[in-house]
Amino acid sequence: MTDPSLPGEMPSVAQLATEEAELVLDGFTNDDAWDIGSALVAAARRDGAAVTVDVTRHGHQLFHAALPGTSPDNDAWIRRKTRVVDRFGHSSLYVRQASIERGTTFEAEFGLDPARYAAHGGAVPVVVRSVGPVGAVVVSGLPQLADHRMVVAALRAHLRR
């Protein structure tokens, strides 16, 4: 099943699981949050993308930036997508695609308040080796697959450092 709201090739749950397994950090400090968030802002400015970026650890906001062209709606999307990551321990896109591959939608499957939860791409868990999920890196402002890919690219770059 494909989702017409997602431009480009929709990754499968298996592909998203492989991606999440690749994005495991050895640790996650305030400085790491700053580096990842700053890299996302730099990429957005380079690409002329109007996005809001948010990085949290255990519910503590460590980085937040709203670039020109964004609005308070982006902050609401960030909160809703982050709740999905916090509840399920997977990226918001993974959770969305898992429901689709089971022949349903996230909304129908879980019945969670859509004003509080949004399984739309752009929120990726921060996973620390031998610990598990400790936070989230979130982008809002682009089509959801582009939001997701932007976060994944920043985490990959951070891992290479």
Counting DSSP E segments of at least 2 residues, the number of strands comes to: 5
CATH level 4 superfamily: Haem-degrading domain
Helix-strand makeup class = alpha+beta
Helix content: 40-55%
Globally, the shape reads: globular
Distance between the termini: 37 Å
Q: How many structural domains in the coordinates?
A: 1
Q: DSSP strand (E) fraction?
A: 15-25%
Q: What's the mean pLDDT score?
A: 95
CATH topology: Beta-Lactamase
H/E element sequence:
HEHEEHHHEEH
Give the radius of gyration. Answer: 14 Å
- Give the second-level CATH assignment, the architecture: 2-Layer Sandwich
- Identify the CATH class: Alpha Beta
What does this structure look like?
With about 160 residues, the chain is of the alpha+beta class. The protein has a single domain, classed as Beta-Lactamase. The protein is built from six helices and five strands; from the N terminus they run αβαββαααββα. It is globular, with a radius of gyration of 14 Å. The model is unreliable at about 1-5 (pLDDT under 50).
